[in-house]
Here is the input.
Amino acid sequence: MSESVPTAPTSAASLTPTLAAGLEPAGHRGHGLAGDGTRSRLPAYAVGSPFALQAPSRVTQCPPPPPDLGEPSASRFVYGLTLPSATGTPLIAHEAAEAVLDVHGVEDELIEPALALVHELTVHACCFTGAGEMVHLVLRRSDGILQVVAHDTHAPHFTPRLAGQCIERRKVSLAVVRELSERYQGEWGFAAAQPPAAGVCTWATLVHAPQVPHTPSSPAAAPAAAPGRVA
Here is the structure.
């Protein structure tokens, strides 16, 4: 008999602490997904979520206040993309993210791994989102942390056996994401999305570029002796 999967979790409280019978948050820095219930220090889905919007004011101001007129900053920005689950979507996300990082002048050493995270997380989200449905990608920088978040529509399973199998599939799919994030002293993980979103939120962060080992410079060569003289 096939499993009946609801379109969205009934409440955030119903997913704690087991997160829908087995969809646990990923471990954090250096721990991967051990399945021991260790929570990342990042919120499972609040940071960067497309649904984490401010509540509207009771009084609507008109004319509305102006947008942010400051220069683009490398230290603080947030962008969201909603894209179809399709073969070309990872390339489109990569190109859009490249423009964002360029406009904001992000450090060169973080651009390549950030674009790799965008590509890998978009591929992952598309793999867990059916044709005709949409994935949502968030790229943000705050407090020195560059974060990529991807939402897919594959709802958590409530049958423990199916939940465990699905978690293992996600871990395999996120192998490159884990390696990149840990190499750059970041965190990664996934958890059931918070209503009104359905599916799963997956995130990864980059903090610092790996330290390049210092190699002592070779001693300067002794000057050659002048012709006809003994060194």
Notes: The longest strand covers residues 134-142.
